[in-house]
Amino acid sequence: MVKIVDVEISLDNFKRAFNRIPTQEEIGMMMRLKAHNHEKQPSNGKMHISMNRRCDFQKAAQDSARGRSLKDNVVITKQVWSINCLLVNGLKKDQIIDALHLTEQMYDRALARYNLPRKGLTKRFKHEKRSSII
To answer: Any residues with CB less than 8 A from the CB of 17 and at least 6 apart, and which?
Structure first.
């Protein structure tokens, strides 16, 4: 066994210092030392805090958006328009999924995102150019 002191622990440094490949025991020892040195470093946990803060801000924004009154002039897809029309006319979830060839996840996502069914929704589709008035 070789004693390693005051050297950055890596295979390259070991090969340079001793002109040979380390044995399995020496590799295990270097890994334990590296883990032990890593544990000594101060960690303030800022990464987890910033991730949680981002989620909190996102939830707060969604909650405030739910509290606002709904607009009738919303840009939607043709699929969402179809789902809304069928819901307003009284069709059930299974019937709409079969008629429009949707998955249940697509249907649920449209309901949650656009707060369907909504009466008085005007036609403004995504990816469609507005017609110019001459």
So the answer is: 7
Q: How far apart are CA 26 and CA 92, in angstroms?
A: 67
Helix (H) or strand (E) holding 9: none
Contacts of 100 (CB under 8 A, 6+ apart): 79, 82, 83, 86
Residues in CB range of 15: below 8 A, 6 or more apart: 21, 22
Instruction: Say which CATH class 70-128 falls into.
Output: mainly alpha
Over the stretch 96-112, which tens digit does the pLDDT of each residue have? 999 999 999 999 999 99
Token pair for residue 110?
């449209």
pTM for the model stands at 0.46
pLDDT, one tens digit per residue, over 50-77 is 677 888 888 888 888 777 777 767 788 8
